[in-house]
Amino acid sequence: MMNNEQKDQLLPSASLVQNGVLCEGQEGNYFDEKGKEIKEFSLIKIFHFKGVNEKGKGIKNYFMYKWVRLKEFKGKMYWVGLHISDDSSDYFHLRSIADKNRVLKGVEVVQEPFA
Q: What is the Cα gyration radius of the chain?
């Protein structure tokens, strides 16, 4: 398993667009499967696996919940998902589960930050 520093070194150059304007220093925005923009401090629900329900009858979908944050690496800000406990030592890059249109399949924004 790779540590976070190794993950960061694998990052390709990002398409840096914010509010329709090319800007230095921040990766472009991502969207959930319903087309909703994912913002910093959003809580997202991610499909994890299908398994037997608690009573041992039938199949149930299981989900993970993650906080979305911007994390700095070499002067640029990248979107990452953190455990709800806010243990920032372990995270994943949203680009690792995004398609070419920056949409995260199997992901839903369940809570947005206050404005």
A: 15
The pTM of this model reads 0.70
Contacts 24+ apart (CB under 8 A), 88-93: 89/4, 90/4, 91/4, 92/7, 93/7, 93/11
41-75 burial, b if ≥16 CB within 10 A, otherwise e? ebebbbeeeeeeeeeeeeeeeeeeebbbbebebee
* CA dihedral sign, ordered 54, 64, 102, 91: negative
Q: How do residues 43-79 score in pLDDT, each as one tens digit?
A: 999 999 999 988 888 899 999 999 999 988 888 889 9
Strands of the chain (E only): list them.
17-18, 21-22, 30-31, 37-38, 43-52, 59-73, 76-83, 91-93, 107-111
Between strands 91-93 and 107-111, the pairing is unpaired
How many residues are present in the chain? Answer: 115
| Residues with Cβ within 8 Å of residue 62, at least 6 apart in sequence | 48, 49, 50, 51
